[in-house]
Every structure is written in structure tokens, then in C-alpha cells.
Give the backbone structure.
Amino acid sequence: MTELNPALPRATKKWKKTLRLYSQQKSLFFMILPWMIFTFIFNYLPLTGWIMAFQNFRPGKGYWKSPFVGFDQFAFLFREQGFWRAFRNTLAMSTMNLVFGFVFAIGFALLLNEIKNTYFKRTVQTISYLPHFLSWIIVCGLISNILSTSDGAFNNLLMWLGIIDKPILWLGEPKYFWWIVAFANVWKETGWNSIIYLAAMSSIDTSLYEACEIDGGNRYRKMWHITLPGIRPTILVLLIMNLGFILNAGFEVQYLFGRGLVMDVSETIDIFVLKYGITLGNYSLATAAGIFKSVISIFMIVTTNYLSGKIEDERLF
Amino acid sequence: MIASKKKFKLGSIEPIVFRTVNTIIMLIVIVVMLYPFWNTVAVSLNNPQDTLKGGITLFPRIFSTYNYETVFKNRLLLIASVNSVLRTGISTILGVIVAAMIAYVLSRPEFLWRKFATRYFLVTMYVSAGLIPNYFLIRDLGMINDFSVYILPGLVSVFNVIVVRSYIKSLPSSLFEAAFIDGVGHFRCFLLIAMPCSKPVLATVALWCAVGAWNSWFDTFIYCSSDENLTTLQYEMMKMLAAAMSSSSRSGDAIYQAGQAASNMVTPVSIRAAITVVAAVPILVVYPFLQKYFVKGVMIGSVKE
């Protein structure tokens, strides 16, 4: 069966060989092709909707009959002050989330790594994961309780410590809003994000620590010269992955608490899209804003991936 | 002499000081992580009239199950709970099977489309069409106000696929070779060898699927908000929270009225606390037992590509 007729032309032989390979693997294709089609429908097909951003889209007319307007939607978008405000807010909040998220997770992992009592260590770890499993909706509810002006725990604590003498309306003041978002993220994800660093720390060669000890290095020198460099590759990979999502500043906190005066600092691109697209029915403009977001994400991930490949030889793809 | 003695003392005290300070920091972390939820549990078990006086911290002052009775008697919340349980169950089972199946195929080195298929799936992690095109797709597929919208769009999770694939790849290849020599086909190899051998990672993926499905509300908000029979727990909570927020600060913006339309009544704090506990407890009860699995899963997930 495997013997091929030598008289046949080369191309036919090659073609037959390929065919045979495919038929050998038909069960593999049978297992994956349905899901590739599935992914095509739910992830690739909607990309055709990007055509709306270059049209003056009317749902009644569909993609085929709506008039094309070229880049007019983008031009309008870039002249729109609300969009740049949303862009600034998104960038500010996601940068704060990124910086605080990294600093707190690494710091927590470093300190937890120094705890020698296994039982205590595991208890702290388990409790630190708890907020990660709560939904953002629940977290928002908890934030509003904690920061409440009537009997909120945070105001009570500050008054008890004598730092303030009457409750502050934390959620009503624009100047606090970005910090609230950043610390809500820190509270929710520090424990979870530290898993990866703790794992990286546990795989550092212990003989390095012994060598450092012989050289007279104390605890802090060991942290600085061995532990931190040991987890640097992990930090870099996570940084690249996160920079791709730099325009995702979260949604629920901004959506639920961003009202009144705070709206100026809370409205993100996602909320801008929701407002223009679903509430005001301006589908073309909302799609254009969505494309802008996707393009920035792809640009960020490609650039950081390239740069870290150059500098550190750590690449994602 | 005195100087050297002093130095010796400092050196021996430092570890004790560090350990004490570190332990105190960790205790603060425990309190900060635990208190907000603990306090909500206490409020939910307290008499609602008494709660209004304030001052509930760690334990209920006047114990009462009234809040929970109110929650479980509410028809809408009952529907919401059933829907949340259903969507979580179905998406978890299907999500794990689908992720494992794709992962198995992508882990086979001889698979002809391995490179292409891997990239094909990876791209979807970073490129998303966005809210509006997705909405039109769901509408054109006739999935608005349909239960399938909770299951199908998120069925293939590329991140989960990569995690499972890395795990299957790390299994000894002799395991599969022996089976192939015995004439076992790919499908049976997947079911009888790959699936049972990757139980730890499948447990992790199941947890992620369940958490994701249980905690999501945005799809209800966008696709199913006009059908009461399709509401979910998290969406009901969002509506209550939105109503409570808007009563404290008026906002005429149209975007927020969508979330409030169905519930203009502000729900009392103690009832909201009870719902919060109901919505959080199923996952909080499960995750500590899966800890050793998901810690491993996160580590595999971080291994590049």
C-alpha cells in the first residue's frame, strides 16, 4: 500500500503522500476543525463589523447599503474632547494599576518568602487569594461599604487614629478616584499575582544563598542580589503580557462609581464605547473607538515583545 | 571591647526584629483581605433594623436570618440563582472538554496544522472586534435573549487551551507511543490517556471556567436585560448597587439609566449583604481545596508559549 508507482510524475507522488498524511490524521482534524470553525464565527467573523467604522452605519441598511465615509469617523473621534478625556483616564488608571500591581505583588511575595512557618505561610496565602475569587460587582459593593460616610470602616479607622475629624466622601471627590481604582485592584489581585513570583523564587538555586551568606551578605543583600534577579525573567514576561492590555483599565468600578463630578476622571474608553454605541446608537463612532483600542494593544504587544527580545532574550512569541 | 559587643548584639537582634515586623505585616494583610467580606457576613446575619444604627463590625449584634429568608423568597432572585448555577455548570463542563480536546491536538508533534492552528487560536487573545461588532453578530445569530449566549461565545478559551497543552506536552511521550503501537486511535488516546493523566490541570481550568461564568454579568446586561427569566445573580446585584449609588448621587446621564430601569427601589444594606454572601460563598467554599492545583496551573500558564 505504501509503495508508489515510480512511473508516476513527481508532483502526483508528492500529492499522494500529502493525502496519505492527512488521511492518517483525520481523527486529529475531526477533533479540532469544529472548534476552529467555532472560533472563526465568534472571534474572526465579527471583525468584518470593523467596516462600520468607515461608514455612516444605519442598522436598517446593513453593511452593504450604508454609505462609506472613509476616515471621517476617526477624524470626528480625534476631534472629540470626550474621547481624549476617556483616553487619558484609561491610560492613567491602567498605568497606576500596572505599577502598583507589580510593586505590591513582588513586595508581598518577597516578604512571604521570608516566613519560615509553613502553616502560617499557607494560611496567609490562602486568605490573600480570597478577593481574587470575588466578582468585581461584589468588590464594588464592598468598596462602597468600606468607604461609606455613614459608619464606613475606613472613615472610622482614620477618625479613631485622629487623622481626620469628620468622614470624607471618598467616592464623590474626583481627586481620590484613580487611587481608589488602583487600591481596589491591589486589594483584589496582589495575592493572586504573587503566586507566580513565589513559584519563581522557590526555583532559585539555594546554593546561591549559601554562597552569599559565606560572603557575609545579610537578608537584604540576598533579596536584592539573588531573589530579585532570580525572578527577573518572570517579571519581564508578565510585563509584556500586561502591556498588551494597557488600554483595559477595568470596567465595573468606573461604571458604578463614575457619576456626578467624578465622571470627568472615571470615564474610560470602554464606557465611551458603551455610551456612544449602545445608549446613543452611534455604532460607527463606537466601533472606530474600539478599533483604536485594538490597534494600540497590538502595537504595544509587538513593540514590547521585540524590545525585550533585544534586551533580555525573553520573548513571548 | 564594648563596640564589638554592641555589634554582636545588633546582629543577633536583627532576625528577631525582622521576623516580628514581617509577622505583623502579614497579620495586617490577613485583616485587610478578610475584613470587608467578614463584615458583610456579620451584617447579613444581623437584624436589619438594628443594622441601621451602625457599629456592626465582626459579629452580628442581634442574630437574625430574616435577610436570607427575604432573599430566598424573592422570585426574581430565585430565577437568578438557578440561571447562575445552570450557566456555571454547563460552561464549566463544556469548557474543560473543549479546552482539553484542542490542547491534545495542538500538543501532538505530528499534527500537520500544528503551527498554523496554534497561531490561529493565539491571535484571538489579543485581537477583539469590540463591543458593537460582537453585539451585531450575536443579534444576527438570533442569540439575543437566549440562554445560549451565556455558553457559546466564551466556550473556547485560548488561555486555558495553552495551559492544558503545556501540561500534556510535559507528560512522558512514551505514554502515548505505547498506546499508538497498540493501535489505539487519537480519539481514544485523548479520552483514555490524555484526559485522565492531566486531571490536576483540568481541575485548575474547571475552577477558572466556573469562576468566570459565575462572576460575569456584562453579557446579561448587554444581551438579556429585557428578559427577566434569563437574569443572573451578579446582574441583579449590579442593578441593586447601581440603584443605591444613584440615590446617593444624582446623575442624569442616560447610560446609567439602563442599569437602573428595572429596579428603582433602593435595596436595604442588610439585604444586599445577604445577596453578596449568597453570590460569593459557592466559590469561596471551593477554592481553598483546589489551591494546590491552581497554583500549579498558574505556573504552567506563565511558561512562555
User: Anything to note?
Assistant: The first helix of chain B runs from residue 2 to 44. Chain B touches chain A through 97 residues (CB under 8 Å).
